[in-house]
Structures are given as C-alpha cells and as structure tokens.
Amino acid sequence: MNRTWFVTGAGRGLGRAIAVAALERGDRVAATARDLAAIDDLVAGYGDAVVPLRLDVTDRDQARDAVRAAAEALGRIDVVVNNAGYGLFGTVEEITPEQLRDQLDVNLFGVLHVTQAALPVLRAQGSGHVVQVSSSSGVAAWPGLGGYSASKWALEGLSEALAQEVAGFGVRVTLVEPGPVDTGWRDESGVHAAQLPAYDALRTAAWHPPGSSSPADVARVVLAVVDADEPPLRILVGDLAVDAVLPITEERVAAWRRWEDLGRSAG
Fold it and tell me: Is 214 a catalytic residue?
C-alpha cells in the first residue's frame, strides 16, 4: 500500500532521509521546509510525488495552511512526521530564558501546531499515524542538555496523552527516540549558550559517545514502525540510545521501589 506523508523539516537531516526513504519506495510526500530551495532537488528528482510546502512550524496559521494544502494535493494524509527541531546546548545556569523559550517554541509548540492542524484530517479519514521525532534525551537527561531535554520530555508527555485521546479514531502515535544521529545537530544547527568557567571541568568530563546512527538507518526504522500492524508508542533507536536509556530507566524504577514505603505513607 502506497502511503502519503507530511514531513516537517524535510530540507535536511533526518526529515530529508525520511522523505527520501518514503519516496524511494513509491510513496508520496508533502515535504516542508522554511526555505523551499532546500527541497528543490527532491522535486527535481521525484517530480509529482513531492508536494513542496513552505512551513515555519512556529507559525500556527502557516501550519494549518500547509496541512490543508497537503491534504488537497495528496487526497489524504496517512503519516505525519513531526521532525523539525534543533538542539540547545548549555547547563541550566548558562542557558537564557529566551533560548529556552525559543527551544520550546520549535520543539514543542511547533509540534503542537502541526498536530492540531492534522488531527481533523486524520479523524475524518478514521486512520493515520503521527510520528513524533523525540530523542533519547526525551526519556533521560544529561548535563549540558537540560533545555533540550525539557522540550523533548514535554513532547513525550503531550504525545502519550495524545495517543490515548485519538486511539478511538483509528489514529496511532509513535515517539521515535534516537540517540546521536549524524545530522550536524550539535554543530551546524545547534544553539550554544555562553559558557561559564565554573562548568569547564564538567564539560571536560562529560561523556561524548563515539559514533552515531546515520539518518538513513533511522529513516528505515521509522518506515518499519509505520508499516507495523501494531506500532509501538515508543521506540529507542540506535545502540547508543538503548545502551544509555535502559540502565537509567531500570535504576529509576529501582529508586521508586526503594522509597515506595515512605511514598505510600502519605496515603
């Protein structure tokens, strides 16, 4: 079955890899980007299978217009991929309130805008799949990524509630939680707070895992999830994500157990 996709941030990185993987197998894609020039080559390479749409996800009206245009051009929308986002690097003391607000505006409110625009289409169809590109930092947190983690943890909570709310309409939700992906996320597209010398030792000692997943490999996982008869609510993607998050999650449960009696004493 050929599917129709609505992919945000399709101009580069993971969004582009997902769009290309879908197009390569014969699906049609509404590919969105803030700058349409970034997806000119997709249109040149795949022709009418691509619907190019300008979209800044922080603009709610633009999100509604883009979804409406995609639905009209494609006839339906089977998969919505909320991929647009960026990284914010700095300790909690270093990041500015403005940097955190901007991070939430894209990574959280941008997803909200697109999701709210798409849900009436998916509900009317009685089917659809919302794929939220979260992160291993959406279920665990590390020094220097508190602002980014805050945006992804908020996305996780929003999406877990969403999954329960729309299940009765035949709409599925999956949170894709990759570890590091080779997209220039830390350097080319990231925002870095001014550094305080007090945290230099922490930065030196911080764990910088070797290697990363390729965007194409993550895209392959996304397509497999979308094709699954019973897709998961969450999936950790990449060895680094699995190896880092599972022990943290196990220790989290163990800590709750250790303090369970005291917690229960509150009645």
Answer: no
